[in-house]
Write a structure and sequence with these properties.
Length: about 210
């Protein structure tokens, strides 16, 4: 992970743990970017193989006084997600979210971009869900590369509704004008095919294949 700034791109925070990410500010494009790395270490591979589902809840609800800061009042009922990806999301949340929220508050007119590859691509939308429901009118874009499937059918349906996936599919010709979740996959990459649908996992977001 990069740790130094360059030109008008300022690295604001770097986290290295079982999963890792970097937060930076791009003044040229007026963006705040959260970039999450893919699987390279043994610990990350073990996280990938924690395939069993667990109930999905907003990570912010673990914090006392969350109702002061968030506009939602209900969870994604019946939703389950891959335990390894959820554990990784908790780690990123606990070690990066405060810095993300602080930077977003300091630059309210900047677009928030959350991106990641492979394991990072699976964690990115879970972290972005927390940002989507902050009571602020800003554009948030999630771009995952080579992401595996994250959760069950109810989770996929809820995410697509929250991120207006159908609207974006119907209006791709005019560009993205609202917050959106974009999932980029390559025809020769097997990772987006996993975990298999027979285990109850489904994709969500705008699929650019």
């Amino acid at each position: 992970l990069c740790s130094g700034s360059s030109g008008n791109v300022q690295v604001e925070h770097v986290y290295r743990g079982t999963v890792s990410g970097v937060l930076f500010r791009d003044d040229d494009h007026r963006e705040i970017v959260v970039a999450l790395k893919g699987t390279t270490s043994d610990e990350e591979w073990l996280m990938d193989f924690k395939i069993y589902p667990m109930p999905y809840h907003f990570l912010s609800k673990r914090k006392k006084g969350w109702r002061k800061y968030f506009s939602f009042d209900s969870d994604c009922r019946g939703c389950t997600v891959h335990k390894g990806f959820y554990d990784g999301s908790k780690e990123i949340y606990d070690n990066m979210f405060a810095q993300i929220a602080e930077l977003a508050h300091a630059y309210p007119d900047y677009t928030l971009v959350v991106t990641g590859h492979s394991l990072g691509g699976a964690i990115a939308p879970i972290i972005a869900n927390e940002l989507l429901f902050l009571p602020a009118d800003r554009t948030i874009t999630v771009i995952s590369f080579g992401s595996p499937k994250i959760g069950n059918k109810l989770f996929a349906k809820w995410v697509d509704e929250a991120w207006n996936t159908r609207y974006h599919y119907d209006n791709l010709h005019s560009g993205l004008h609202k917050s959106a979740y974009i999932r980029v996959s390559h025809k020769d990459d097997v990772v987006p095919l996993l975990p298999v649908k027979q285990l109850g996992f489904y994709h969500c977001g705008i699929d650019l294949y």
